[in-house]
Sequence to fold (500 residues):
Amino acid sequence: MNFDVVIIGSGIGGLTAGALLAKYGKKVAIFESHSLPGGAAHTFTRQGFTFDSGPSFYCGLGNDKPSLNPLKQVLDILGESLEVIPYDPLGHYHFPEGKFPVYSDLEKYRQAVAKIAPEGAKELAAFESKMLGLYNCLKDIPTIALRSDWQLFPILITNYFPSLIKSLFQVGIISGSAGNVMEQTVKDSWVRRLIDLECFLLSGLKAEGTVAPEIAFMLGERTRAGVEYPIGGSAAIIDGLINGFKRYGGELYLNSHVEKIITQSEKVTGIKLKKGEIIKAPIVISNASLWDTYQQLLNPEDLPKKYRQEQLKTPTVESFMHLHLGIKAEGLENLTGHHVVVHDSHKDITVPGNTCMISIPSVWDKDLAPDGHYVVHAYTLEPYQGWEKNADYENKKKQRSQTLYQALEKVIPDIRQRVVLELIGTPLTHSRFLRRYQGTYGPAIPAGKGLFPSCYTPISGLYRVGDSTLPGIGVPAVAASGILCANTLVSPQKVEEIVK
Ligand SMILES: Cc1cc2nc3c(=O)[nH]c(=O)nc-3n(C[C@H](O)[C@H](O)[C@H](O)COP(=O)(O)OP(=O)(O)OC[C@H]3O[C@@H](n4cnc5c(N)ncnc54)[C@H](O)[C@@H]3O)c2cc1C
Fold:
């Protein structure tokens, strides 16, 4: 088999790059190790319950308003649309100091915060105003038009000059962390913790480690576009990308684990599947993580020694404990879908088990669960180290999942009596089903302490997409990585033809 482009992995990074390249006229194939596509965003079904394995928090996917979400921009180009259910409040935060709703509208959100910290709420307004200033100057440059090579500059100058000039005034904030802005605006220790929490939910790092544009976009978009859930869960998104990909001639091979990337004289020539087959292509894009690509898929001698060592030293965010539950829904008619529980104010929010995320998407899409039932997904950080499949594994699993049950009890006090299906996932489960190095959430590169490597590698013809290439773990950033990589591989004229 010969292709113009071969992609390793069908995560959102691989699918967006693949679908765009197919639309640009390239002969593209994606090889996915798993039996299900979507990577961290895959959906699975057990006993009539449909579970999201990862993301459930989405913004700007509907057709009501023009979207700045790079994923939506790709779906639009592919002619795919999603049915979504908007909701507000977008969630509830449960701190030991109090529980409050998080509204898309920032004024309403601050009023809720003011009930716990009246002075802090005013400081939060100053923080948000700085962030929205940054968002307002970046928002007019659509990701779908961008690329990762020098040809970006003429595009920006010709098409987006006013935004570029506005951005120059924000240069100090753009290149810094959300923590820098917090330092300038917020003294209240509880509101600082709240900002740290919002940064942590997005990047896996607190404010001082999270790049400011990431938070600016999150605040700007949730205010402008609101949040919504796609009917069918993340599978609907993955199906949309795959439909578009296939419509333009793309080929997707599931159960096709890639064992090696083949190189010759520092140039990529194709891939070797675990089944033994060799697939030739002058361009290979890896959607596997940085560590999986450089440690497993390439041989040590394929990369410059120093580059390899430095890349493999990239710090990782921990893995996860997961609870996927099917529960009886009777009496829970007013339940809302997203909750974040912080158990202990004296512990750092990043301490495994202390911050628990909860998502109950069947409150929006009833078809995800059998009649009279809900699907629940709760998760928290958990280190990979120390987990092995030994005699104690099942015990440890039960014990480490208790923090998730305790968090759920804050939302549904009698949760334990309602469970009809229980699936507990550990870092070993996460790394196995997502094919991710040590089950990591992604790279922990703090703002100002290192650069994300973009789509380039030292090997000619080998590119990378996904959450270890651009700042901002999460669906929009990952879709952006796919766009930037695909656009870099074709001429600016080709992109303009398709994108306008
Ligand atoms: C629990 C959880 C909750 C999240 N919640 C949200 C949220 O609410 N909103 C949000 O925006 N983001 C969220 N995220 C983050 C988001 O899901 C990820 O950032 C994103 O899906 C990662 O996409 P990716 O393309 O980088 O990689 P992945 O999804 O990891 O995809 C990589 C793919 O490559 C395949 N692969 C790897 N190695 C090989 C090989 N050798 N051969 C063949 N295939 C291979 C894997 O099987 C996988 O399918 C969440 C993540 C998790 C884990």
